[in-house]
Amino acid sequence: MTEGYMAVMPANGWNWVAVWRRNYLAWKKIALAAVLGNLAEPMISLFALGFGLGIMIGRVEGTSYVAFLAAGMAAVSAMTSATYETIYSTFARMGGERTWEAMLCTQLTLGDIVLGELAWAGTKSLLAGTAITLVAAMLGYAAWPSLLYALPIIALTGLAFASLAMIVTALAPNYDCLVFYQTLVLTPMLFLSGAVFPVSQMPSAFQQVSSLLPLAHSVDLIRSVMLGRPAESLGLHITTLCVYAVLPFFLSAALLRRRLMR
Amino acid sequence: MVAIDFVGVTKSYGKRVVVDGMSFTVAPGECLGLLGPNGAGKSTITRLLLGMATPDAGKITVFGVPVPARARLARARIGVVPQFDNLDHRFTVRENLLVFGRYFGMSKREVEAVSPSLLEFARLENKADARVAELSGGMKRRLTLARALINDPQLLVMDEPTTGLDPQARHLIWERLRSLLTRGKTILLTTHFMEEAERLCDRLCVVEQGRKIAEGRPHALIDEQIGCQVVEVYGGNPHELRSLVKPYAQRIERSGETLFCYAPDPEQLLTQLRGVAGLRLLQRPPNLEDVFLRLTGREMKD
């Protein structure tokens, strides 16, 4: 049993790159549309929510609502792009498109494939998150040099959510089940994590739930960086995100082995 | 050292035993055909061979490497042509080779060094920059074959390599496979095409319900299992005809409206039948299909 599990672990530290490069090559063919989408989406949300709601709300936690929201949006877009990539595109490559089936006939192990897919989903969230922080910075809602610090946090957020979504991909029998994850897990998390309004406005029970959610840690980190504030409990935030990135990886590899290598 | 060694391999899914105590060996440079009806367990045998499934019992080695324990090492020497097309349809022919080569740890330069000869082998020289979606079924299968050769494998595992292809495309694949055999590659192929089995395979292993029910060289199997001429009788009342020809036939089988008479002396049998009006008669030498149907039964099973 253990031996079988070890056989699906990554074969080495670099095999996953081949999987990442395959996905990059596919993405490159539609890159222009993808990048435009990455830029347009945050601009629309920032304008609509930021200015529309912002006028009514005024200042939040000592800053304008648009600036407060922009940081939340950066974390949320990292979450959604990594999740969508994993539960839809990866799910297709694992199943109907038979991409994984071809990979499994080569020198790649299942773990290499999963790792490559996670790295790719992390890359996609880095792209989406970078777009939103750039838009925010150009509008004057983020400090330029601190943007650089936001990027690794966005990438880590993407990895954590890709890793979590990989469990869903490993378990979901079909596309319909993937939607449940979106509506029952991600949407509530969006509201519980302080992305669109401060956590401090919620009842204390909800605040405690919030402190366990990966998105809350990501929002806290990215917001302090983008607003140029000193980050509190930096170590806790990063450790939590790392745990969310690493543990589901091992769990999903085990689940995928059960699913694909019966 | 043998290329493939299966010893008493068993695999079940739930209560269904898919591979049941299967044993066979494949010598280097040999082409072994696994012949069997749909659902006989042929595809599961190839999955077990590649380490994609773990047997419940038994031992598998590929070039002496134990599978699935060291399946990755074994796969370095195996090329796979799967039953269902799993090419990357968004990519060009050339890109498919590049991406697949990288899965074997090859650099772009290494892939580019071998690509021209692979494309020539697959007769796809002029299609290098065509997208897979633009290729015909035969071209896709040839690309899959070229892709399977990218790591210069000693063993090719093919799961129904010509299913769904038209006759021209099928003949081209067969010709390419024969040229691989003359180069000393070992081939394990699963098929339910008798013609394919007869043309390509040095040895056949007839599989049914996960069990080996016969094994041998194609012609030896035909001699052993049939060993006489076959007269096919179409039309008439099969029941009456059966009693008419019974004394002259070794064995009679019925499939739908056709009677298959295995006759050591076909002339005698034909003389009996020529008097009956409305019959169509065909005398022919026995073939692998007769063997297959004799072993697995003439009537549809499902």
TrEMBL record, chain A:
Membrane topology qualifier: Multi-pass membrane protein
Single GO MF annotation: ABC-type transporter activity
InterPro entries (UniProt xref): ABC2_TM (IPR013525), ABC2_TM_bact-type (IPR047817), ABC_2_transport (IPR000412), ABC_transptNodJ (IPR005981), Nod_factor_ABC_transporter (IPR051784)
Span of domain ABC transmembrane type-2: 33-259
Gene Ontology CC annotations of this record: ATP-binding cassette (ABC) transporter complex
TM ranges: 30-57, 63-84, 126-144, 150-171, 178-197, 234-256
Signal peptide extent: none
UniProt entry keywords in alphabetical sequence: Cell inner membrane, Cell membrane, Membrane, Nodulation, Transmembrane, Transmembrane helix, Transport
Cell location: Cell inner membrane
One example of a Gene Ontology biological process annotation: oligosaccharide transport
Pfam family name, one: ABC2_membrane
Known function: Part of the ABC transporter complex NodIJ involved in the export of the nodulation factors (Nod factors), the bacterial signal molecules that induce symbiosis and subsequent nodulation induction. Nod factors are LCO (lipo-chitin oligosaccharide), a modified beta-1,4-linked N-acetylglucosamine oligosaccharide. This subunit encodes the transporter.
NCBIfam families linked: nodJ (TIGR01291)
Family membership: Belongs to the ABC-2 integral membrane protein family. Lipooligosaccharide exporter (TC 3.A.1.102) subfamily.
Assembly: The complex is composed of two ATP-binding proteins (NodI) and two transmembrane proteins (NodJ).
UniProt-recorded name of the protein: Nodulation protein J
Organism field: Mesorhizobium plurifarium
UniProtKB/TrEMBL annotation, chain B:
Domain ABC transporter, chain residue ranges per copy: 4-234
Domain of life assignment: Bacteria
One Pfam match: ABC_tran
Coiled coil (residue ranges): none
EC number(s) from the headed UniProt entry: 3.6.3.-
Keywords: ATP-binding, Cell inner membrane, Cell membrane, Hydrolase, Membrane, Nodulation, Nucleotide-binding, Translocase, Transport
InterPro entries reported in the protein's UniProt record: AAA+_ATPase, ABC_transporter-like_ATP-bd, ABC_transporter-like_CS, ABC_transporter_ATP-binding, ABC_transptNodI, P-loop_NTPase
Gene Ontology annotations for the cellular component aspect, listed alphabetically: plasma membrane
Database matches in SUPFAM superfamilies: P-loop containing nucleoside triphosphate hydrolases
GO terms for MF: ATP binding; ATP hydrolysis activity; transmembrane transporter activity
Compartments it resides in: Cell membrane
Sequence similarity: Belongs to the ABC transporter superfamily.
Protein name as annotated: Nod factor export ATP-binding protein I
Organism: Mesorhizobium plurifarium
Gene that this polypeptide is encoded by: nodI
